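Appendix C reproduces, verbatim, an entry submitted by the partner laboratory led by Prof. M.T., so that reviewers can inspect both the input and the predicted structure.
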Amino acid sequence: MATPAGAEKTAKKTGEGRLVVTQTRSAIGTKPKHRGTLRALGLRGIGQSNDLPDRPDVRGMLARVPHLVSVEEVSK
């Protein structure tokens, strides 16, 4: 899933950082809200990564599933 062209320009203007989120554990047996959160983060399976903007809404989703993902901040 590609990001909209305007999203990258907006992130550069506002100085937002980037986060690389990797799913490290299976969603099998987790609560439905946790599975939905992983899907909203763009993760479908163990080992899959996604590059996301460092915003409060993304941080909130990551706070819901810290036991299933690893997060790395990307510096430019």
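The chain has a mean pLDDT of 89. Additional entries are available on request from the coordinating office.
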